[in-house]
Amino acid sequence: MEEEKVSCPYCGSTFNDKEQLSKHIDRIHHGSGLLEGDSTKW
């Protein structure tokens, strides 16, 4: 069974799951704007 990849909306990098994508966005694209998330963390 092939896992579905998720891609970064900012740079197109692909990840195995949304958790890895979220960590990538936090590290690499922090400050680029939020697509979704908990507004209490802004």
From TrEMBL:
| Pfam families cross-referenced by the UniProt entry | zf-C2H2
Q: Check the record and name the InterPro entries matching this protein.
A: Znf_C2H2_sf, Znf_C2H2_type
Give the transmembrane region(s). Answer: none
Q: Where is the C2H2-type domain?
A: 6-34
Protein name in the entry: C2H2-type domain-containing protein
Which species?
Answer: Nitrososphaera viennensis EN76
